[in-house]
Design brief:
Layout: H1 5-12, H2 16-19, H3 25-39, E1 46-50, H4 56-63, E2 67-72, H5 75-81, E3 87-91, E4 104-109, H6 119-132, E5 133-145, H7 148-156, H8 162-174, E6 176-178, E7 185-189, H9 194-200, E8 207-210, H10 221-226, H11 228-241, E9 253-259
Parallel strand pairs: 1-2, 1-4, 2-3, 4-5, 5-7
Antiparallel strand pairs: 5-9, 6-7, 8-9
Pfam families: Methyltransf_11
GO molecular function: 2-polyprenyl-6-hydroxyphenol methylase activity; 3-demethylubiquinol 3-O-methyltransferase activity
GO biological process, one term: methylation
């Protein structure tokens, strides 16, 4: 899959930046931030944000005092991310990182595994993260859950249409989602497949976090996120449920964390 012309056209619309800054996408953003802040070493750590887009996460990481380098295949994303204070950005591929061995404190893969349909490519991307991170350093990777397309299309109402419904149903079998109409294509992981991919890349011990839980499917989720008091309660509730195995697949996204052997 990787960066097809259709996928490049999708990202050139510059929609991903806004997705995490508004609406229910904020739940994914704040939960990612919450999990990573608990796991990252104290600032100033050298953090490599691979596939970091326009710098949605790089921005707050730099504000927290980390030294952030962002790598992304999209020139538009690199150009925008490079404008952020405390962030350096350049083009690159998650499967062949342009950094020396053991040169960073943490590697974040918060997007690349979405677009690598071949298992060998996903393992290679994680293995590259392992190569460049120091011993004891953190590797964190986000994945889209196998059931997210069905859940999201029912929530949005697009499941009523034959094209989107067939695409979501097909993804349940092989994980490959061909987004009808918008060019977005993705690989959707079975949550239980991720630890084996990490193990094959050299990280045998992982911790998995469901990011949104079931809350992203609630009709009034925006109201909760808009209200600081209710938002704090929702985030606390999901933190308590984040690693319950039976609930991992309900989240739209999962974050998997591991540390390189010392």
């Amino acid at each position: 899959m990787a960066m097809t012309p259709e996928l490049l056209a999708y990202y050139e619309q510059d929609r991903e930046d806004g997705r995490l800054r508004a609406g229910r996408g904020r739940l994914e953003f704040w939960r990612t931030q919450d999990v990573l802040r608990r796991a990252l070493p104290p600032a100033p750590a050298r953090v490599l944000d691979v596939g970091g887009g326009t710098g949605v996460h790089a921005e707050w990481l730099a504000a927290d005092g980390h030294r952030v380098e962002l790598i992304d295949p999209m020139p538009l994303h690199v150009e925008r991310a490079a404008r952020l204070a405390g962030v350096t950005a350049r083009q690159g591929d998650a499967r062949q990182l342009p950094l020396p061995d053991e040169s960073v404190d943490a590697v974040l893969l918060l997007g690349p595994l979405y677009h690598l349909a071949d298992r060998a490519d996903r393992v290679r991307a994680v293995a590259e993260a392992v190569r460049v991170v120091r011993p004891g350093g953190l590797v964190a990777a986000a994945t889209i859950n196998r059931y997210a397309a069905v859940h999201d299309m029912v929530y949005q109402g697009s499941y009523l249409r034959e094209g989107p419904r067939e695409a979501a149903q097909a993804a349940l079998t092989d994980g490959v989602l061909f987004g009808p109409g918008d060019g977005f294509t993705a690989y959707l992981h079975d949550p239980d497949d991720v630890p084996a991919e990490f193990a094959d890349a050299g990280l045998p011990e992982v911790t998995r976090y469901g990011l949104e839980g079931a809350f992203w499917l609630y009709g009034d989720v925006d109201d909760w996120l808009d209200d600081p008091e209710r938002r704090a309660l929702m985030l606390d509730a999901q933190r308590r449920l984040e690693s319950v195995p039976s609930l991992l697949g309900v989240s739209g996204h999962m974050l998997t964390l591991a540390r390189k052997a010392s």
